[in-house]
Amino acid sequence: MKKFIVLLIFASIFTACDSSDDSAPAFESTITVDGVEFKPTTAKLERNPSSDNPNIEGLTFNLERGVSGSDDYEAILFGFSYSKNSPTGPNGIYTFGLGTIGETLFANGFYYTETTTNMLYHSTVEVTYLENGKYRFEFNDVLAVVLNQAEPIVISGYFEGKVN
């Protein structure tokens, strides 16, 4: 009986321990860049209020993998403006390219590596604000190109989690 009690105590101690890694990102991602997995290590948000219209706010998101200055660095940076009066907030399907605020949901962005800068264009990103700083981005075969480069890079998949 004593062995059973000792086992029960050890079992409760090990079950009470939290094995989660506090340094692990608070998000998940299925993003691929040209078919290669892109798992961000950081996700950042910058708010950009409009100086012309207090009802317009710009949001810029930066999903980074690796450390800037290293060979394995990659980043997807994109932004858009939306009306704070919109009943859906920043939620929507944004087309990469040119557009007019209030008429078209459009986004601008770049895919960076340590050696190249690719402009995002064509296709869409669907943005959903979830709660408490959490977002979901669904990249729908977004093209990233360098001027004078023959083939564009394709970015697909989703990101979901807390953006700081």
Protein described:
The structure is a single chain. With 164 residues, this protein is mainly β. It contains one helix and twelve strands. It has one helix at 2-16, and strands spanning 27-29, 32-33, 36-37, 42-49, 56-65, 74-83, 92-96, 106-113, 117-121, 124-131, 134-145, 153-162. Strands 7-8-9-11-10 form a five-stranded mixed beta barrel. Strand 4 and strand 5 (56-65) form a beta hairpin. The chain is globular. The relative contact order is 0.19. Mean pLDDT is 84; it is low at 1-21.
Summarize the structure.
This protein has one helix at about 1-15, and strands spanning about 25-30, 30-35, 35, 40-50, 55-65, 75-85, 90-95, 105-115, 115-120, 125-130, 135-145, 155-160.
Q: Main attributes?
A:
single chain, 164 residues, mainly beta, 5-stranded mixed beta barrel, 1 helix, 12 strands, disordered N terminus
Mean pLDDT: 84
Largest sheet: 5 strands, mixed, barrel
Runs with pLDDT <50, length 5+?
Answer: 1-21
How are the strands ordered across the major sheet? 7-8-9-11-10
- What overall form do the CA principal axes indicate? globular
State the oligomer: single chain
Structural class: mainly beta
Query: What is the H/E string?
Result: HEEEEEEEEEEEE
- Computed CA radius of gyration, to the nearest angstrom: 21 Å
Number of helices: 1
- Total strands: the figure is 12
